[in-house]
Amino acid sequence: MITSQEIIEKCLKDGRDYMYIGGERYRPGDCLLYNGQELTVKKILDQVHFFDQRNFCMHSYMYHEQKWEHCPERNADKKTKDRIHYAVIADKVRTEREKFHDSEIQNKPFQVYDAYNRIYFWETMCRHILKKEYDPNDKDSEALLKLSDKLTARGATLLADMYRHFLLKSENIGSKFDRERFVTGYIAAQTKENERY
User: Fold this and answer.
1) What pLDDT sits at residue 72?
2) In what order do the strands lie in the sheet with 49-52?
3) Across the chain, where does the E strand assignment appear?
4) Residue 135's CB: how many other CB atoms inside 10 A?
């Protein structure tokens, strides 16, 4: 959370650069807890209204009504500390998706048309992971985070590796159940492959 010294030094404005929620100052990117789930201040509208990460308009008085909790260790300058596994994965996937989107924009229209299946996979799996951003930790999320970290250390990305697995297995990802099954199968295959080496 923001300090009064920082407000003075940077000439920050209440209701534009920060706001008070439950007696504490919050800026865009800072998190609260609501039923154990992260609630992130995405954009401040005025002194009492803000958009959360789902683009829902929230009110600062909801802190008391809905029994939100302060969570200073998850604020904007400590983004990944003690966060839910899928939230950390979602941050990485967002970055991957932006790079993928930028690379597709550079292509000619006929190349984009040829890459339709690849685009469909990236968009579908990206949305799937982002929807799970606030799910509690489980065995799959922990394994997926470890795989993501290993891939990052090797200079690879999670979605690109998932796409490689998708092409090898030629699985269906049309429904939520299919996507869940695909992720579980991907984790199992990667774990098995890592055990061999």
Assistant:
1) 65
2) 57-59, 49-52, 37-44, 31-34, 69-70
3) 19-21, 24-26, 31-34, 37-44, 49-52, 57-59, 69-70
4) 14
